[in-house]
Amino acid sequence: MESTPMGHPASDSPVDVIIVGTGFGGLGMGAKLAREGKRSFIILERDEEVGGTWRDNHYPGAACDVPSHLYSFSFRPNPEWSRMFAPQQEILDYLRSVARDENLLERMVFGAEVTGALWDEAAALWKVTTPKGEFAARTLVTAVGHLSEPKLPVIDGLSDFSGHLFHSAQWNDEIDLTGKRVGIVGSGATAIQVLPEVAKVAGEVVVFQRSAPYVTPRPDRAYTEEEKGLFRKMPEVMQELREEMFWSNEERYAQRRGTPTLVSAAAQVALDHLHRQIEDTELRRKLTPDYTFGCKRVLKSSDYYPTFTQDHVHLETGGITRVEGNRVLGRDGGSHELDVIIACTGFEATDLPIAYRIFGRDGQPLSERWANGMQAYATTAVHGFPNLWIINGPNTGLGHNSAVYIAEAQIDYIMAAVNFRDEAGVPALEVSGEAEDAFMDRVDHLAQGTVWLEGGCSSWYVDHRNGRLTTLWPEPAYTFRQVNAPFDPEPYLTWSPDEAGEHILAGVR
Amino acid sequence: MKIHPDANEGLAHIGALSVPFHDTLAPEDSRNTIVLIHGTGGSAKTHFRTLFPMLAARYRVLAVDLQTPDGELTLGALTEQVAGVIDQQAPARPVHVVGYSLGALVAADLAASRPESVASLTLVAGWVRADTQQRLRNRIWHRLFESDQDLLREFVTWTAYGHPFLAGRGDADIQALVDARTFPEGIAEQMRLNAVADLTGRLAGITAPSLVIAGAHDQMVPARQTRLLFGGLPNARYAVIGSGHAVPHERPAQLFQLISGFVEDPAATPADEVQEPIFV
C-alpha cells in the first residue's frame, strides 16, 4: 500500500477499530477513541477530505436547520459560530478543526471508498476492501450517514436532457448560472435553501413541486462580538444556550404526537408565515400543504416564499411527464425550455447503499438481512454481524432535534460495548435475534399514534416495504440517549469453543 | 377543541361548585394516574396544553380546572375541589400529584391533609409563604388590575417569563404574548390568596416522595423561595429548570422529562439531593 499516511498501520496488520466516514458520526467516534488512547484505529473516507454531508452539500444557501450551538459536539463547543444557524462552509470548517485538533488526520485514509467489508469468522476480524488496499480490524464502525447517497427523480428522458443536469449534493461549480434558465426539481429542505440563491443570478427559474412543504420562519441572526467574547470567557454561557435550544426543540416533539390542538397551532404558524409573505391567492393555494403538519419534515426559511413573488420565478405543481431535448413537459400540457436542471430530490434514506457492501456471519449481506426494512438493536447492533456497530442507521433520525446529540449517544454505547468485550476477554459480541426483534417491537409500539404513521403523507421517514417507521426515533431526543446510550451485555452472544472444539453461540454471561 | 383527543371532559360537584376536569381514563388503562393542578389565572388548557399530551402518551392524566367561589378564597377551598375530583374519578389507587405555582400549594396542602391519596408530589414554581419581594409585586398587580389592565398585561408578561426566554424573541412575539394575556374571573381573589397562603410548619408531615422544581429565572416566585419547599419536605429532591415562572410554557419538554423520570422511579434521585440536569 503506497499511500499509507504517516502513523496508521499498514494494511496487513489489523487495527482495533476501522471507522467508515468522516462526518459528525465518524469524527465523533474517532475523537472519543483518540481521547481514550487505548486502541489503534483508522478512518476510511471515500472522498479526499473530511466533512461528510457538510462537504458534499456545498450548494449555494446550504445551512443547517438546527442552531449551531446545539448542532456541534458537546465535548467541542465553538464560541466562534457567526450566526444562530451557521452556513455550510462554517460547519465544514468546524469539522475540519475537529479532525485536526483531535489528531485524527494522521489516521485517515482518503479515497478509500469501502467496496466490501467481510466478517472473517475464523480470525474474528472484519476484512475491508477499498481502492487504497485491504484493511482488517476487530471492530467495524460505519458512520456513513443516512443522507449521503443522492437520489435522482425517475423522469422519462431526464438522462438525455440536452442541458446540464446535476443533483444538489453534487453541485457543479463549473456551471455559471448567471442569466441561465434553471429548473429546480423538488421542494424539500434543499430546494428551499437553493431557490433564493439561484434566483439571485438566474435569468429564469422554474420550481417543479410535487407536494408543498410546511415552512416556518427561520429566526436566524448573527452573534455580536460581545456575545462571542463572552462565550470564549465563560463557556458555561454557551452550555446554557445549548440547553435552551435543545429543550425548545424537544417541545416540538409534542406536536408530532398527533395532538390536534398542538398540531393545528403549529400548522397555523406556518400558514400565517405563508400568508404574510405571499399575497397572490393562486400562489398561496399552490404553496399550501395538503397533509398533516409534521408528517414530512417541517422546513425553516424566511426567504423561500418571497422568492416566488419575483417575475422570473415560476412554480409548477402539475407534475412532469417527460424531458425532451432541453424541454421539460408538464402533465398539464405546459413546457419549459431550460439550460440547467438541479435535482433537489433528496437521498436514499430507507435503503442504505452501504448495506450492500457489508457481509456478516456466513457471508450474509446486510442488505439481505434488511430486505424488508432496516432494523438494529439499540439502533446500533445487528444480529448476524458480530463486532459491527452502525452510527446513523435505523431509527436515528429526528424530526425535531439535533442529529449530533443522537450520534454522541451511539458513540458512548459503542465505546462501552467495545470496552466490555475486551474486559470480558471475548473475541466478538453479537446481539441475539430475539433481542433485536424485541427492540423493534418496542420502537413500533412507541411509533403508534405519531403523525408520521397517521398523518396521511408519504415521506422518507417510513419504509414503504414494511410500513414501519425505520428512519426516525419516535420519541423525544432525550429518551434516545436514555434508551440507547447505556450498554447492557445481557442480549449479547459471543463465540466460545465447546467440547468438540467448534464455535457455538452462547450468552456472554 | 379538547386538550387531548383521549381526554373526557366532565364535572365534579363539590358543595355548590361544579368543577370541570379533563381525564384520559379509558377502560383497561392500568397506567399510573397523574393529577395536574394549574396556577393563578390559569386552567388545564392554558397551563398544560403541551405538558398534558406529552404525559398522556405514558400515563392516565387527570387535570382539574379550579373554581373560585364567592367570598374569601382559602387554600382549603381549592384543595377540597381537587380531592373531590380525585374521589370521583380516581379513588382506587393513590395518584401522582403535580401542582404548578398556586397549584403547587394546593398539591402540598392535599398531600398534608390526605396522605393516603398521594403516591408522589411534584411541586413546580411553588413557595411556602410569600416574602416581601413577592408581596410588593402582588401589590403592584392589584393596583394595575384596578387602574390599567393594558399596562398589567405588559407587567405580567415581563414578570411571568424568564429574561432569556423574552430576550430570545422578536418584538412581534412579545406583543403576541402581551395580547394573549387574559384576567379570568376569580384571578384577583387568587392573587389575594397568593399573598397570604402559608404552608409554614405543614411540610414536615408530608411523607410522599416529593420533587421540587424551581425556575432559575423566576421573577414571580424566585428560586430562593421555591427551594424552601425542598428545605421543609422530609422526602424531597430538588431540580432547577432554566426558565422563568412560566415553566410549563417555556420548558414543557424538560418538565415532562423530570416528572416522568420521577414518577417512574421516585428514588432515582435520593431524598435531600439536588438532581442535576440531564446531559445535553
What features would you describe in this structure?
- The complex is a heterodimer of chains A (509) and B (280).
- With 509 residues, chain A is α/β, with parallel strands linked by helices.
- Chain A folds into two domains: 295 residues, FAD/NAD(P)-binding domain (3-Layer(bba) Sandwich), CATH 3.50.50; 144 residues, FAD/NAD(P)-binding domain, CATH 3.50.50.
- Chain A has 14 helices and 21 strands.
- In chain A, the strands form five sheets. In chain A, strands 1, 2, 3, 4, 5, 6, 17 and 18 form an eight-stranded mixed sheet that branches. A five-stranded parallel sheet of chain A has the order 7-16-8-9-12, covered by helices on one side. Chain A has a three-stranded antiparallel sheet with strand order 13-14-15, with no helix packed on it.
- In chain A, α11 packs parallel to α14.
- The longest helix of chain A is centred in the C-terminal third of the chain and has 22 residues.
- Chain A is globular, with a radius of gyration of 24 Å.
- The two termini of chain A are 41 Å apart.
- The N terminus of chain A is likely disordered.
- With 280 residues, chain B is α/β, with parallel strands linked by helices.
- Chain B folds into two domains: 186 residues, Alpha/Beta hydrolase fold, catalytic domain (Rossmann fold, 3-Layer(aba) Sandwich); 56 residues, no CATH class.
- Chain B is 42% helix and 18% strand.
- Chain B has an eight-stranded mixed sheet with strand order 1-2-4-3-5-6-7-8, sandwiched between helices.
- In chain B, β5, α4 and β6 form a beta-alpha-beta unit.
- The longest helix of chain B is centred in the middle third of the chain and has 16 residues.
- Chain B is globular.
- The two termini of chain B are 34 Å apart.
- The mean pLDDT of chain B is 97.
- Classes of the chains: A alpha/beta (509), B alpha/beta (280).
- At the A-B interface, α6, α7 and α14 of A face α12 of B.
